[in-house]
Amino acid sequence: MSDDPETARQIEELVADDRPLLVLDVDDVLLEFIRPFPNFLKARGYDLTLASFRLTGNIAETASGRLIEQPEVTALLGDFFDAQADWQCITEGAAEALAGLGDRAEIILLTAMPHRHRAVRRAHLDALGMNYPLLTTEMAKGPAVAKLRGKANRPVVFVDDQPRNLASVRESVADAELIHLMADTSLRAFLPPVPDDVAVVQDWHEAAPKIAVALGL
Ligand SMILES: [Mg+2]
């Protein structure tokens, strides 16, 4: 069961499906995030200097140099997600990789963002031709993926850029194929080595055949 009641409700709305399951993160997997976000910040009078794999502590007010606190970061992220259609484009190779799977897999987008942004993201994805079901969660992703899989023992592949989300899915779905994909691989330098049971790919071109094999296609 998803621990987030709203995510669980969204999952209940999906049509039952027993095809192999591919669950994708959105920010920095399907859509660019860390490349456009600094441009958004600049337009608002802030600078992002990535010195670690986190936003808080790395964003400064351009005018004063003051590092902004967590609540201000959260507010800016909210504004960015409201305006995402102006900033976020599809990660290179993603659309072709997903089209290549055709209807042989159930593809679900699982984004960790406040539920209130779901409609804006849905509209943006639709405009980009990414009509796959979109779920939001404000809690750990693992339980949501387990609920998505359902009772059928179908293959599951989960793709995310955040190590903690990969770990959460490993905890809830022991036999899921986990793929670590980052739209901007330069951020890898800030991360600890990924566990052996996670497949690391450099881009969607490398991810596509791995996904197909793991789904049994
Ligand atoms: Mg992400």
What features would you describe in this structure?
This protein has 217 residues and is α/β, with parallel strands linked by helices. It has 2 domains: 155 residues, Rossmann fold; 51 residues, no CATH class. The chain contains 8 helices and 8 strands; from the N terminus they run H-E-H-E-E-H-H-E-H-E-H-E-H-E-E-H. The strands form 2 sheets. The chain has a 6-stranded parallel β-sheet, sandwiched between helices. Strands 2-3 form a two-stranded antiparallel sheet. Helix 4 packs parallel to helix 8 and helix 6 packs across helix 7. The protein binds magnesium ion. Magnesium ion (MG) binds next to loops.
Strand and helix map with partners:
Layout: H1 5-13, E1 21-24, H2 36-43, E2 46-48, E3 59-61, H3 70-82, H4 94-101, E4 106-112, H5 118-127, E5 134-137, H6 142-149, E6 156-160, H7 163-172, E7 177-180, E8 198-200, H8 204-214
Parallel strand pairs: 1-4, 1-6, 4-5, 6-7, 7-8
Antiparallel strand pairs: 2-3
The chain binds magnesium ion.
Magnesium ion binds at residues 25, 27-29, 160-162.
